[in-house]
Amino acid sequence: MSTLPDSFRLIFQDSPLGVAAVLNTTDGTLDNAMLLYANPALLKLLRHKNPDNYDFVSVIREFCTDEEGHTLLPLSEDPHNTKSIFSRIDIPGEKTIWAEVRAQPTALLGERAHFFWFTDVTETKEQETIAKREAAKADALAQAKSAFLATMSHEIRTPMQTIFGMLELMKDEHETERLSGMITSAQSSANSLLGILDDILDLAKVDAGKMELDAFEIPIRLLINGLIDSMESKRRENKLYLKAEFADDVPEIIIGDPKRLRQILTNLINNALKFTEQGGVIVQISTQTKYVSAQDNELPLHIEIIDTGIGMTHETAS
Predict the structure, then answer these.
(1) Among 90, 254, 288, 314, which residue has the least CB neighbours within 10 Å?
(2) Sheet strands side by side (includes 302-307)
């Protein structure tokens, strides 16, 4: 093996990066190249002790092309063009080695040569592989969960329609006042269950990334006042007030998803009533927004639920 000048040897001897000096790279290939020097870090990376009886040039040639076909060949003669690639190599009896490889042109012993720099990234690549595998498992689990929720919701909804039909038939009979109340209660419970099923379907859509919002005309005053009327029994039971306050500039009709809006407001108002023992709940609607800016031909709407309940601590709210 030819000798690398001592000035280079001293620099590379204790370098944490693997370094190889390869001579005779004039044609940009490694066909006639000769290994001039391999530092201890490169020998350790390649799990080898003696470069004299090891075909380092062939190994370097393998490292010059990655799995996607990106290559350092032909080798650049521009000292400022030192692109790098991430390559793997399988050494018999050893685990797969990953390295970031960079080639830098130079002149050694009066000939064209290249320094090859090797950074061991095996551990990083192994962690990336584990992360990708876990992400794939999580995606598969989410898809299975969404499919299960959608199937379960459908299977429950079918007999629920029969229950609704039977309740309607029972109402057409000559029922007593007591039986009428029982039927109304059963219908209310059935409607609540259907609402839960809708929530389950929405969750499945969110998990699958398929949630889409509708854009329909919504009579906003009618929708909110209707929600308040539907909660009249709970308001009376808790001896609270529940009312809506509309700013003068709130339009009669807005564009949005009435189903989602109703779901959100129902949950918020129910929670406010649940955790309020005295006083009541006010639903304020205005067009004065802090965090949403109006776009062309759009009107932002601010809906705030105000209650006299226990509230939340700063830690809970954040």
Answers:
(1) 314
(2) 241-246, 280-286, 302-307
pTM, full prediction: 0.50
Place of tokens 């290994």: 35
- Cα(first)–Cα(last) distance of the chain, in Å? 67
Q: Hey, what are 239's tokens? A: 């001896």
Q: How far apart are CA 217 and CA 85, in angstroms?
A: 55
Question: How buried is residue 25: exposed, middle or buried, by Cβ count under 10 Å (0-12/13-18/19+)?
Answer: buried
The position carrying tokens 């949005």 is 256
How many other C-beta atoms can be found within 10 angstroms of the C-beta atom of residue 221? 16
Pairing of strands 302-307, 280-286: antiparallel
- Distances in Å between the Cα of 32 and the Cα atoms of 55, 63, 82, 117 are 13, 17, 21, 20
Q: Which two tokens stand for residue 167?
A: 């309740």
DSSP 3-state of 257 = coil
- Residue 88 β-bridge partners: 98
Q: What is the mean pLDDT of residues 275-281?
A: 91
For residue 285, name the pLDDT band (cuts at 50, 70, 90): very high
Among residues of the chain, what percentage have pLDDT more than 90? Answer: 22
Dist CA 71 CA 35 (whole Å): 20
Range among 19-33, 77-91, 239-253 with highest mean pLDDT value: 239-253
Overall residue count recorded for the chain in this entry? 318
CA atoms within a 13 Å half-sphere pointing along the CA-CB vector of 155 = 6
Q: Which residue has the higher pLDDT, 123 or 313?
A: 123
DSSP strand E in the chain: where? 18-23, 34-38, 84-89, 97-108, 111-120, 216-219, 241-246, 253-256, 280-286, 302-307
pLDDT tens digits, residue range 200-217? 777 777 766 677 788 899
Q: What six digits make up the tokens of 225?
A: 């006042």
Q: Confirm if 28 and 73 have CB atoms less than 8 A apart.
A: yes
